[in-house]
Spo0E like sporulation regulatory protein (Paenibacillus polygoni), 56 residues
Amino acid sequence: MSLAVLERRSELLKKNIEQLLIRENQKGITRQQSMFLQQMIKELYQTSHELNTERR
């Protein structure tokens, strides 16, 4: 993937993770939402790794 795509994907993942964490802290989230949150965190980690590799 290109650097711009990876950066945009990272931004979107961070925004979505932040929104879910806020919801979790305020009201709690369902098990399905929790699993979705974990998956997004894994994707963010992988995207960050790809970004670091791409920038080298």
